[in-house]
Specification:
alpha/beta, Exopolysaccharide biosynthesis polyprenyl glycosylphosphotransferase, membrane, EPS_sugar_tfrase, 12 strands, transmembrane, transferase
Length: 506
């Protein structure tokens, strides 16, 4: 028998000493930091509580109003009918259970709308199950009419509240104080992103780096943000500063053990620690954190190019394009007449574009240039202002008077609805490239061709023609990788706003 390698102790021997002070434990609010300075917990700001109260109050008011009107119309306010009460109870249980009122999702992009939609779907299911359980089979109208009617009013209400919040953030109000910690380069990138996308609600107020300096040893700041210390001192500065978010960016200093220790040290501070992904730029529903073999692992599922959700997208594309063509038919006729009267040339401009898997198709647009525009293009090559292989000019002499108006409001793109109806394009997707553009694509850019090109997309709602080529590619690839139905709906709505404002179109 092998001898045990574990040391044995007799009864007369004292047990080994265990230093309880060395065990990591959360820092309490009334404790002092290591240097004896004051400790400040990051309590939620007053505006956060007020905004959440407005969101909950708006949802409650809309729910009660729609149910009251429905009860009057459907049941004539019958006192014995419990359908209205059951529907109200189902909504008020489902919304918080689906995290639709969680402070972490309010104002957080498509996630807020996704949780709100999940809440109303859950409410509809609860009402249907209640009808089956109590034998009230006439609840169909409450499931298929009343609950969707509440959602139809709740979504615009949420959007209006977010617009109020975003306007305040554009003025420098209602922002969360952020401590950034990482290399000077990655911290600078985070600062630039928070300043360009202020609606997210982050404001980097301080930073920590490995050396305790900025981009050089003589600098004590990064892009105007003060560097308050070294990475090893981060937890102490967080406790003293009262930051709401601690953003960890890439740096060789960070190891799993150091991040774990930092998380322990930050317990009780009220600060949320977020770690920027450094291996790949993937977000959205493809990311899931699971525990395997006692380790937290970040699962990255494959992009969805087929399956049930893609079938739903196809149905929405065909039905949506048919509906829009029907509604816009008078406008299409007026535009066609205006183009014809302008210079007697053809109304529709046909151009070969590259679609899914590299297959070419003929894209339709209203003609906005003179009839010999392609021949003149060769003489304007030196004046190209487009990014990458794109040819763009803010003051293109080939554009007609009518064409300038159509381009400003993207009306020249409307005939592409026929391409969507025929299945060659989608309502939302990457921009349909020219064959000569795809010939210059790098391997990563060719991933844009894995899905159908779209009438609109992330790049259109993020600056349109004002974006650089690299930024356009990044946004299109992000859409290909992280596509979801909720993202499509958000892009369609933002497209309407961008078109109405004529932002970045020329």
């Amino acid at each position: 028998m092998e001898e045990s390698v574990r040391p044995s102790y007799t009864v007369s021997q004292p047990p080994p000493h265990i230093d309880l002070q060395a065990i990591p434990r959360p820092v309490k609010r009334d404790e002092q930091p290591d240097d004896g300075g004051p400790s400040a917990k990051a309590w939620p700001a007053d505006w956060e509580a007020r905004y959440r109260a407005w969101v909950i109050g708006g949802d409650v008011f809309i729910t009660l109003l729609v149910i009251a009107i429905s009860a009057f119309v459907i049941d004539r306010v019958a006192p014995h009918d419990m359908h209205a009460f059951g529907t109200m109870l189902a909504v008020f249980v489902s919304l918080p259970a689906s995290r639709a009122w969680s402070p972490r999702v309010l104002g957080e992009g498509a996630e807020e709308y996704r949780t709100l939609g999940r809440g109303f779907i859950t409410a509809a299911v609860l009402v249907a199950l209640g009808g089956l359980l109590f034998g009230a089979l006439e609840v169909q109208v409450w499931v298929f009419v009343v609950v969707p009617a509440i959602a139809l009013v709740a979504f615009p209400q949420r959007y209006l509240l977010r617009q109020v919040l975003h306007r305040k953030r554009a003025k420098g109000l209602c922002l969360l104080p952020v401590m950034a910690a990482g290399s000077p380069e990655t911290v600078a990138d985070l600062i630039a992103r928070t300043r360009s996308e202020v609606h997210v609600g982050w404001r980097v107020e301080a930073a920590c780096t490995f050396s305790g300096h900025g981009e050089d040893r003589d600098s004590g700041e990064i892009d105007g943000v003060p560097v308050v210390g070294r990475l090893e001192e981060l937890s102490r500065h967080v406790r003293r500063g009262g930051y709401r978010v601690v953003a960890i960016t890439a740096d060789q200093y960070w190891t799993p053990k150091r991040l774990q220790r930092l998380a322990w040290d930050m317990e009780g501070t009220g600060a949320e620690m977020v770690v920027a992904p450094v291996l790949m730029e993937v977000a959205g529903p493809r990311l899931n954190v699971t525990g395997v073999l006692g380790m937290p692992l970040l699962r990255v599922t494959a992009p969805m190019f087929t399956g049930g959700r893609r079938v739903v997208k196809e149905i929405v594309d065909r039905c949506g394009s048919a509906l829009l063509l029907t509604l816009l038919s008078p406008l299409l006729l007026l535009i066609a007449v205006a183009i014809k009267l302008n210079d007697r040339g053809p109304v529709i401009y046909r151009q070969r574009r590259v679609g899914r898997d590299g297959a070419t198709f003929t894209m339709l647009k209203f003609r906005t240039m003179v009839t010999n525009a392609d021949a003149i293009k060769q003489t304007l090559a030196e004046d190209n202002e487009g990014a990458g292989p794109l040819f763009k000019m803010k003051r293109d002499p080939r554009i007609t008077r009518v064409g300038g108006f159509l381009r400003r409001y993207s009306l020249d793109e409307v005939p592409q609805l026929f391409n969507v109806l025929s299945g060659k394009m989608s309502l939302v997707g990457p921009r349909p490239p020219l064959p000569e553009e795809t010939a210059q694509y790098a391997p990563d850019a060719r991933r844009r061709l894995l899905v159908k090109p779209g009438l609109t997309g992330l790049w259109q709602v993020s600056g349109r023609s004002d974006l650089t080529w690299a930024e356009s590619i990044r946004l299109d690839l992000r859409y290909v990788e992280d596509w979801s139905l909720a993202l499509d709906l958000m892009i369609l709505w933002k497209t309407f706003r961008a078109v109405m404002g004529g932002q970045g179109a020329y």
